[in-house]
Amino acid sequence: LVRMQNFPFSWLEGASLFQLPAKLGQLLSRFGQLLAEPAIDPNSVGGTLAAIAWFAERAAAQEAVRMLNGVDLRSNAEKMMAGGRPAEVWERFAAQIVEVPFAPVAAAAPAAAAPTQGTAPAAEDDEERPPTEGGESDENNEEVELAEDVEPDA
Questions:
Q1: What separation in angstroms does the CA of 77 have from each of 84, 123, 153?
Q2: Smallest Cα–Cα separation from 39: which of 56, 28, 53, 55?
Q3: Which of 16, 41, 141, 151 could form a disulfide with 50 if both were Cys (CB 3.0 to 4.6 A apart)?
Q4: Which of 125, 133, 69 lies closest to 97, judged by CA?
Q5: pLDDT (tens place) for every residue of the chain, 154 residues total
Q6: What predicted TM-score, i.e. pTM, was given to this entire model?
Q7: What are phi and psi of 51, to 5 degrees?
């Protein structure tokens, strides 16, 4: 189980809040198959909204957390409103693995389809992540490629 919080304000304002699970699903499915669409965590406490997602494979969840935790996903407008300063800890996307003693009931329609036979597996390289246009830097100044439809708002 991956638990996420510290979403950019632009992801939470108005109708965007209702699109949060789908937006997170698009972002997370880059790392592996999800068992269901991410959901708002009903156990969110202290006014901090959180979401949860179940990956089919633990390694995919770990990679998602490794790549996304600590990334500044604020929109350009949010960064300008903050005077261009670097993101504070509470403004950086937070993702962590949460150990639970059970898994969700298998979803009738997984959020991401499994690769079909004959599909070439993606190249795996734990060390190199080439810079991408429109990417965001994480806490180690590494570029993180964001899906075009989940990129921070301009």
A1: 10, 35, 8
A2: 53
A3: 41
A4: 69
A5: 999 999 999 999 988 999 999 999 999 999 999 999 999 998 887 778 999 999 999 999 999 999 999 999 999 999 999 999 999 999 999 999 998 766 665 544 444 444 444 434 444 444 444 333 444 444 444 445 554 445 544 4
A6: 0.66
A7: -130, 155
